[in-house]
Design goal:
The complex is a heterodimer of chains A (about 240) and B (about 800). Chain A has about 240 residues and is an all-alpha fold. Helices cover about 80% and strands about 0% of the residues of chain A. The longest helix of chain A is centred in the N-terminal third of the chain and has 35 residues. Chain B has about 800 residues and is an alpha+beta fold. The longest helix of chain B is centred in the first third of the chain and has 35 residues. Classes of the chains: A mainly alpha (about 240), B alpha+beta (about 800). Chains A and B meet through α1, α2, α4, α8 and α10 of A and α1, α11, α12, α23 and α24 of B.
């Protein structure tokens, strides 16, 4: 998997420890709304909700990627490294935020709140959730919830300077957040306690800071071959059963 | 202050909405929209009333042929379509199903036929256990490994060297017929045989998953094997020998078959005692009907019918022995290690085993034997879907569809972005193979079964399923006195009376049920009394040989106006004040003697309390007016506490940190339910099991350390298993998605992973006494390291 996809996945995975309480709440509400629905159907709702959410992320990623691409073609030759620098910086800020050392990223969330104010009313149509379609719609809307986590991943998407790549990055990020969100019910309590453990949060934060530093480094000294075609060339070589003749 | 919604620390300044503070705008928004629903859900969550179960007769059946937890769902769904079956719940770890059926429409003997089918074989527990077909499984393993060895050898000889570029194709020209004719043909034939024979159980499992609507590991593997096999077959017939992946199919089949073989043994070990216990309950009775001995199911027993139990047989139900006597092993119910002698008139208890002799007894058909109770309790523990177990189940179920979609997506993506078809296929295959939902499905139930059965082996009964998710550092440990620190039975410690006075006192006390009276009544049996006049709380007066004799405490004689001689009182009450109960006996206006009785302490109570005190605050809770000689060994003492107030006291301590409570499960049941972890000493009655998380039959107080060690060890196992499941899948799947993983290694990794989880569950759990698990280091301010230390340190 390409590095930035892996990075996005990691942000999602580690970062979602932060929003467990928040997103767990929505998931819980989904459960409450669906009341006595049988287990399989409830899981269906959860899948639909998360699919909607990830689709929103991917759309946002495509937008960010487009933005990045425009910036790059507007041809300040340095746009790409600059984008990666910003992305890395945001990740470092996010890591510091998760570790509880520096809360600057909250400023971004405040800004994102303005976008949210316009989108949120649309979500009301989907509640209470009675069909998988409504769960999907709810996910589509609630994917735009102001969230520093999402913004740092979006910065990565923007740095990719490609709408397709941006969408992929954000989808990977969304997949990364899945484990924490699937943790519902009684276990969520245990997980919440684990997350409240400062050590774990600091470790997650530190990991993201390291990732951020690495992204900054690649911005200063970009490795060759990071394009799509080159990547598949690599997998061919490493794919075990590739049979050179 | 923490975030109102998610409980994380607040930034400065926090985000506010009304009087609530939040950590981030996201939390605020969610709270504004869903706050009421979420808070409501939280408040309700712990209550979670169990839905009522339909009425009907209950039977436990043994089910052969279950091979993973998705079989549970299939069996349950299949069976619930059958009308007269009200509820069916099967359990993979113990290979058992619990059936609730309509006894008017079905007989118990009909159940096996109804539940058998689709590769499952049901049998009544009262029937002898069928021999496991390990031979067939072993044959499959041998077939798989030998065929796969030949396939791999051919690959090694002719294909890998050229693929790797070590040998040029031109070099193979001299052996052309062999390298390009015979070898691929042989590989094709052998692999086909493997798919058809070795793969059978796998495909059956996949079918089970599809029919149950719960996709499982078998579905992933089957798709992988069949895809590799079909793709290669097409390529071979097109003469395209470079695109042959029969090695992948053969390797997956072999690795999986070998892995499953070891899994089966390990699973049986993990569930061991539990399965034996289920087997021990054989609800049939031998009775005489029409002059001939016959065997009938227990619920066909006619009221008042006499049943016979011979050596080696389990007594099927509680009953009163009519004739014969026997040595009976009652260890399962009381922990008593030696067989006890039982005679006519004694209560024979269901689930105990006749070691020697033969007895006949009349059953009380309404009685649920203790073993039945025990079986039910353990069943509930094992099949609970609460907490981590439920979560893991849900993850396992959502997991497979997720992986299937992921694999398809990654294949399509690789293909559409220009990779050759074979690479795309291989990446998809590796993804399917490497993911391991079994680890999620098995992590909790197997470790729980191992813990529960190890505990049973040591006479400790876990009665609560979420026992392993409780806090493990206790700040306070509360002891009930009577029945816990003491055995609850009184014994006479000192007699200050002439033999005549003792005989009269014993005669009077025989009429009273008071524990003190029973101790004194045991002293002598030469006289008898009548015309008993009780003085509640004071004593008893009755006529012995024409004289009214009074036996009781000082209060009784004060009421009568008789003086207690000071020297006598000094000898009895002077010793240790409050350490026992003093009773006097007197007649014709004078006090003639006295007794000091004391409830007998359990042998090791002082050591046990001291050991716990080194790690936590110890509290003594007693209904008696005085704590007796127990007080000084405790940090805090509450005496004269009525049963209903005990719960309030426990609640009070809970405000300061987790509380463990040790009681006897009778008058302290509400207090036990209130504690974070509760242990009841005594018989495993339904009442005790309902109140306490752990029931310990027998007298050995030190076994609570065994219990703690076992809980801790089991908890550790569950966590290890879950952590491994998470770690493995989180590493392996991205690796496979990246195309870095060879399907062969993927198969090895997956099998190793599920064998690891099962092996980890089946390892013997550390014994509490002596050897044991490593202790958790004590953290400053974190109370009670000693509780979780293995006993004997």
């Amino acid at each position: 998997m390409e590095f930035s996809l892996l990075t996005a996945l990691t942000i999602g995975l580690l970062g979602s420890t932060h929003c467990l309480g928040m997103c767990g709440g929505i998931v819980g509400a989904l459960d409450a709304g669906t009341g006595g629905a049988p287990g399989a159907r409830r899981i269906g709702y959860h899948l639909a909700y998360n699919a909607g959410r990830i689709a929103s992320y991917a759309a946002a990623g495509a937008l960010a990627g487009l933005l990045g691409a425009l910036a790059a073609t507007a041809s300040f030759g340095n746009a790409l490294p600059l984008g990666r620098m910003i992305a890395g910086g945001l990740m470092i800020a996010l890591g510091l935020y998760l570790g509880g050392w520096w809360r600057a990223i909250v400023v971004l969330e405040r800004a994102g709140g303005h976008v949210w104010k316009r989108i949120e009313p649309l979500g009301r149509a989907f509640f209470p959730v009675r069909t998988a379609g409504q769960a999907l719609g709810l996910g589509l809307i609630w994917g735009w919830l102001p969230c520093g986590l999402v913004y740092s991943a979006l910065a990565l998407a923007m740095a990719s300077a490609s709408p397709l790549r941006g969408a992929q990055i954000m989808a990977a990020f969304g997949l990364g957040t899945l484990p924490a969100l699937v943790a519902i019910g009684a276990f969520a309590g245990a997980l919440r306690r684990a997350v409240a453990n400062p050590l774990l949060r600091q470790a997650a934060g530190l990991t993201i800071v390291v990732f951020g530093l690495y992204v900054c480094m690649t911005a200063l000294d970009p490795p060759v071959h990071r394009g799509g075609a080159a990547r598949h060339g690599q997998t061919q070589e490493t794919a075990p059963a590739a049979r050179p003749i | 202050m923490t975030c109102r919604l998610c409980g994380l620390p607040l930034p400065a300044p926090p985000f506010r909405a009304g009087e609530n503070s939040f950590c981030c705008p996201g939390c605020r928004e969610v709270f504004q929209r869903f706050g009421d629903v979420i808070l409501d859900g939280r408040a309700r969550a712990p209550a979670g009333p169990q839905p009522g179960e339909p009425e009907g007769a209950v039977a436990f059946l043994r089910i052969e042929g279950m091979h993973c937890s998705s079989c549970e769902t299939l069996i349950d769904r299949m069976a619930e379509r059958i009308g007269p079956l009200h509820a069916v719940r099967s359990n993979y770890a113990t290979a058992t199903a619990r059936v609730v059926y309509d006894p008017e429409k079905l007989r118990e003997e009909d159940l096996p036929a109804l539940l058998s089918g689709s590769g499952y074989r049901a049998s009544l527990r009262s029937q002898p256990r069928p021999a496991p077909d390990t031979d067939r499984a072993l044959f499959r393993v041998v077939t798989a490994t030998s065929l796969a060895a030949v396939v791999m050898m051919l690959y090694l000889a002719f294909f890998y060297p050229t693929h790797l570029g070590l040998v040029d194709y031109a070099d193979l020209e001299p052996v052309r017929w062999l390298a390009f004719g015979a070898a691929p043909a042989a590989i094709f034939v052998l692999t086909s045989a493997m798919v058809a024979y070795v793969g059978l159980p796998l495909f059956r499992g996949a079918l089970v998953g599809i029919r149950a609507g719960v996709l499982n590991m078998d579905n992933l593997l089957s798709v992988a094997v069949l895809a590799a096999y079909a793709y290669s077959t097409v390529q071979v017939f097109r003469g395209n020998l470079d695109e042959m992946y029969f090695d992948v199919a053969a390797a997956i089949l072999t690795v999986v078959t070998v892995g499953r073989y070891f899994e089966a043994g390990a699973r049986a070990r993990a569930a061991g005692a539990l399965e034996r216990l289920m087997d021990a309950w054989t609800p049939v009775a031998r009775v005489m009907r029409e002059g001939r001995p016959t065997t009938v199911p227990l619920d066909r027993l006619r009221p008042g019918e006499t049943l016979t139990v011979g050596p080696g047989e389990a007594i099927p139900i509680d009953g009163i022995i009519q004739t014969g006597n026997a040595a009976v092993d009652i260890s399962l119910l009381t922990g008593e290690p030696f067989p006890v002698r039982q005679e006519p008139g004694d209560l024979a208890r269901g689930g105990t085993i006749v070691v020697e002799g033969e007895i006949s007894l009349i059953a009380d058909p309404a009685a649920e034997s203790q073993l039945q109770t025990l079986t039910r309790i353990l069943w509930d523990v094992q099949s609970s879907t609460s907490g981590a177990r439920g979560l893991a189940d849900r993850v396992a179920r959502a997991f497979v569809p997720f992986v299937l979609v992921l694999a398809a997506a990654v294949s399509i993506w690789f293909f559409t972005s220009g990779s050759p078809l074979r690479d795309a296929v291989l990446v998809g295959l590796a993804t399917l193979i490497v993911s391991c939902p079994c680890t999620f499905g098995l992590a909790v139930p197997l470790a729980t079964a191992a813990g529960v059965s190890a505990a049973l082996g040591r006479g400790i009964i876990f009665t609560s399923a979420d026992l392993f998710e409780r806090p493990r550092d206790f700040r306070t440990v509360v002891f009930d006195k009577t029945g816990t620190l003491s055995t609850g039975a009184m014994s006479v410690e000192r007699i200050e009376a002439a033999p005549g006075a003792v005989a009269r006192a014993a005669a009077v006390e025989r009429l009273s049920p008071h524990p003190v009276a029973r101790a004194i009544a045991g002293l002598d049996a030469s006289l008898s009394a009548r015309e008993m006049e009780p003085h509640p709380g004071r004593g008893v007066i009755a006529t012995v040989g024409g004289t009214r004799v009074a036996v009781g405490g000082r209060a009784l004689f004060a009421a009568l106006g008789w003086d207690v001689p000071a020297p006598l009182a000094a000898r009895l009450e002077g010793g240790a004040p409050g350490a026992g109960v003093v009773s006097y006996v007197g007649w014709e206006g004078a006090v003639r003697g006295g007794f000091l009785t004391r409830d007998s302490a359990r042998a090791q109570w002082r050591d046990v309390v001291a050991r716990i005190r080194s790690g936590a605050r110890t509290v003594l809770l007693t209904g008696a007016e005085h704590p007796g000689g127990y007080g000084p060994d405790f940090d805090e003492v509450h005496s004269g506490v009525p049963p209903e107030a005990k719960a309030a006291i426990v609640r009070h301590y809970r405000g300061e940190g987790p509380v463990a409570m040790i009681g006897d499960g009778s008058n302290d049941a509400p207090a036990l339910s209130e504690a974070d972890l509760s242990i009841a000493f005594g018989a495993p009655t339904a009442l005790a099991a309902e109140a306490a998380d752990i029931v310990i039959p027998g007298q050995d107080l030190a076994r609570i350390f065994d219990a703690f060690a076992l809980v801790a060890a089991t908890r550790r196992r569950i966590r290890q298993n879950l952590a491994w499941a998470l770690l493995y899948n989180a590493t392996a799947i991205p690796l496979a998605l990246s195309g870095l993983l060879n399907p062969l290694f993927a198969a090895l990794a997956m099998s190793a992973s599920s064998v690891l989880v099962i092996w980890n569950s089946s390892r013997p759990l550390p014994a509490g006494e002596g050897a044991g698990a490593p202790a958790r280091p004590a953290r400053a301010g974190a109370p009670l390291p000693a509780m979780m230390k293995p006993a004997g340190e």
